[in-house]
């Protein structure tokens, strides 16, 4: 987006025969130069899904959430490169992976 934010969307499907709920979690992996952990939680949303139905989930990550703290400049610094995107029900249960460049 023009304000520096990024919007990411995915579809969650309930393949079971009972209504259910899921907490969809969005993790980002910053470019290696940032020195950040491999998975940084940047959003989550609980969705209720009827049996056999699907639900679109969208996350907007604002520009500041895509920056890292720079101790030398004592300010938030932009990071450029490829960001990994991981979506799942936990950091150990990733169901979808992708990437985007800044």
Describe the structure.
The strands form three sheets. The chain has a four-stranded antiparallel sheet, with no helix packed on it. The protein contains no helices and eight strands. The chain is elongated and about 55 Å long. The chain has 102 residues and is mainly beta.
In DSSP terms, counting alpha (H) and pi (I) runs of 4 or more, how many helices? 0
Shape: elongated
Low-confidence runs: none
Helical content stands at under 10%
Residues in β-strands, percent:
over 45%
- How many strands, which pairing sense, and closed or not: the largest β-sheet? 4 strands, antiparallel
Order of secondary-structure elements: EEEEEEEE
Round the Cα radius of gyration to an integer and report it.
16 Å
Class inferred from helices and paired strands: mainly beta
Rounded average pLDDT? 95
Query: How many angstroms does the end-to-end distance come to?
Result: 11 Å
Strand order of the largest sheet: 3-2-7-8
Q: Strand tally, please?
A: 8
Give the assembly state of these chains. Answer: single chain
Brief write-up:
By secondary structure, the protein is an all-beta fold. The chain contains no helices and 8 strands.
Write the layout of secondary structure elements.
Layout lengths: L5 E8 L6 E10 L10 E10 L4 E8 L5 E4 L4 E4 L3 E9 L2 E9 L1
Key features of this structure:
102 residues, two-stranded antiparallel ribbon, mainly beta, 61% strand, elongated, 0% helix, four-stranded antiparallel β-sheet
